[in-house]
Amino acid sequence: MGEHAAGAIKPLHAHEFMLVSADGLFNQLISFDYHDPSGFYHSLLEDEERYYDEMDGLVQSMQSILDEEVVKVNGEVCRPEVLTTALDFRGSENLPCITFFVQFRAKLRAGMNVYECFYDEEVTEYDYEVYWVFPPGSEVVEVSVSTEKDVVTNNVLILWARAGDNVGCYEKVVFNIPATS
To answer: Could you tell me whether strands 127-133 and 139-144 are parallel, antiparallel, or unpaired per DSSP bridges?
Structure first.
């Protein structure tokens, strides 16, 4: 978010969807909801150049955050890349939603696989949920996180934290991908 807007805009909530394919493609959709009383983000819709400058800045900012994390799959370091971002509104020009499209590839294998992420500990400013969806037939075997968690079906994992929770340092998700015939 641009410096000019940062003071007036308050984060409200975030969702992340981590979609894992059997061929090792990890697609992340990360959406942040804000309260923007000054209408800064809505005003960008009137000026295409300002809009794209702001979106480019958001992509660079998110990429620098992701670059501070260490993501490993089966012991190999992966580099999540922000592909683009989108600006939407949740029913009001004062409720912008910014969604980042992030992707990385890893070498998955039939059988057990391990995702690990190392990042700085922090106190959350807002509630958030993370939904992991693995390929059909996969199974979440082990989850080690500082947030709350629930394996709701064999291949779907939900993580969540509430404003004020201490989160971070390390995440580990072990999952089994079935062999294909």
So the answer is: unpaired
Tell me the H-state helices in the chain: 3-6, 40-43, 48-68
Q: What is the pLDDT of residue 159?
A: 98
Ramachandran angles phi, psi of 4, nearest 5°: -65, -25
Distance separating alpha carbons of residues 77 and 87, to the nearest angstrom: 30
Partners of 104 in the beta sheet? Answer: 26
DSSP state of 74: T
Residue 176: C-alpha distances to residues 76, 104, 139 (Å): 17, 19, 5
> 160 - beta bridge partners?
129, 148
Tens of pLDDT, residue by residue over 26-42, are 999 999 999 999 999 99
Closest CA to 102 of 61, 62, 156, 69: 62
Tokens of 90: 């949740």
